[in-house]
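Q: What changes when S-adenosylmethionine is included in the input?
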Amino acid sequence: MSEPGERHLPVMLAEVIEALAPVPGGVYVDGTFGAGGYARAILAAGASVIAIDRDPAAIAAGAALVAEGGDRLTLVEGRFSDLADIAAAHGHERVDGVVLDVGVSSMQLDDPARGFSFRFDGPLDMRMGNEGPSAADVVNGLEPRDLARVIAVLGEEKRARAVAMAIARAREAGPIEGTAALAAIVARAVGHRPTDKIHPATRTFQALRIFVNRELDELATALAASERALATGGRLVVVAFHSLEDRIVKRFLTERSEIRPHGSRHRPEAAAPVPSFELLTRGALVPGEAEVETNPRARSARLRAARRTAAPALPFDPIALSVPEFPAFDLGRVS
Ligand SMILES: C[S@@+](CC[C@H](N)C(=O)[O-])C[C@H]1O[C@@H](n2cnc3c(N)ncnc32)[C@H](O)[C@@H]1O
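A: The predicted holo structure follows.
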């Protein structure tokens, strides 16, 4: 297992801190503590941080930083979709900034026991926290039709049906328990062209990880929670790593910052909602070449930022944000 803090390089740190603009005495939520790269920089600006991570290992490894940060760092094991309640429970109904660096950390990816990667063999787990079904539960328990949809939608895998059928056939002989076994089944179903830049199992592993951790629901709910928790002038900064996540952030911020002509001569009361955010970034910021060279994991990062206006929070509609819906999944296994 890698040492927390040594291996995870915070992505677009300078750009995140510039967009968040922490001020001494301000209170900021870091919804994805990880190895604490962002939290450390916010503390260095003289501000307080309520840092959240759903991974107990990240929280345990953060104890040293809590000791350093004194009473300015509060570390909470939890989900960032609950960030407004978590901040309120720690005495802050309103905060000056929220930062989210969504996805997995290097510590999680590089630990074979967590089952996120097909680079090593490990148990098919993929849960960032301890709760809910694991990837093995999903792979061995989901109906092939639903599995195909998960892989198609969340992995953007064109051969999702072939992958789901191959998994269904393989599990007839016994449950698929390891990352290497799954990667081999997927690779055979997808096939590999010499021109392909990524391993044929990459998209399926991405889909399972997003599904297991409900990552898109978490993100959409966290954006709405940030809208409620941010004080007027407070800043929201989000770093996303693939198009499904970035699309949700983009839609949310576009919708919240637009003034749309809703009202009419006959229904003046249905006037357009006042925007609850002002965009701080036009389009998404991407990392510079030098950062991508030293940290290849930064290459797909997209940063968007916005400032909260004084307008009330708007109703939350995950479907308008194109968060895909899937049937509830329980722990029953097929084979
Ligand atoms: C990319 S890392 C963050 C790295 C961090 N910015 C740093 O500088 O070290 C993402 C972290 O967010 C956590 N995470 C992902 N989804 C989460 C959620 N819904 N709620 C809370 N934590 C989450 C993961 O467990 C992981 O530790």
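Observations recorded in class: The chain has a mean pLDDT of 92.
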